[in-house]
């Protein structure tokens, strides 16, 4: 459960950290999070994201990932920390 609040400087730092994290790391973490949380791609699509985008984020053939605001939206909707996307695995 994620109840952390951030001040403006921390948000800016988090955005910069997200944007400088290797895209492969974020993609692998997205897949891990979906498995651990039992989230289905359809549930992310129901948040308003297009099906091609969501499946592109999960595909092994490219480096497409959710932008920071999209990752934040997903983490809030499913109650996990945005920092989960940044973990080294």
List the helices and strands and how they pair.
Layout: H1 8-20, H2 23-37, H3 41-45, H4 51-58, H5 68-77
Key attributes of the depicted protein:
single chain, 89 residues, mainly alpha, 434 Repressor (Amino-terminal Domain)
If helices are DSSP runs of H or I spanning 4 or more residues, what is the number of helices?
A: 5
- Which stretches are poorly predicted, pLDDT < 50 over at least 5 residues? none
Helical residue percent band: 55-70%
The counted number of beta strands is: 0
Question: How would you describe this protein?
Answer:
It is a single chain. With 89 residues, the protein is an all-alpha fold. It has a single domain, classed as Orthogonal Bundle (434 Repressor (Amino-terminal Domain)), CATH 1.10.260.40. Helices cover 57% and strands 0% of the residues. It is globular.
Put the structure in a nutshell:
The protein has 89 residues and is mainly α. Helix content is 57%, strand content 0%. It has helices at 8-20, 23-37, 41-45, 51-58, 68-77.
């Amino acid at each position: 459960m994620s109840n952390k609040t951030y001040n403006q400087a921390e948000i800016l730092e988090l955005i910069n950290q997200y944007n400088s994290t290797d895209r492969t790391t974020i993609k692998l973490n997205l897949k891990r999070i979906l498995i651990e949380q039992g989230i289905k791609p359809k549930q992310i699509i129901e948040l308003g994201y297009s099906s091609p985008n969501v499946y592109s984020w999960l595909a092994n053939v490219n480096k497409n990932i959710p932008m920071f605001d999209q990752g934040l939206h997903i983490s809030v909707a499913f109650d996990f920390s945005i920092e989960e996307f940044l973990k080294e695995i």
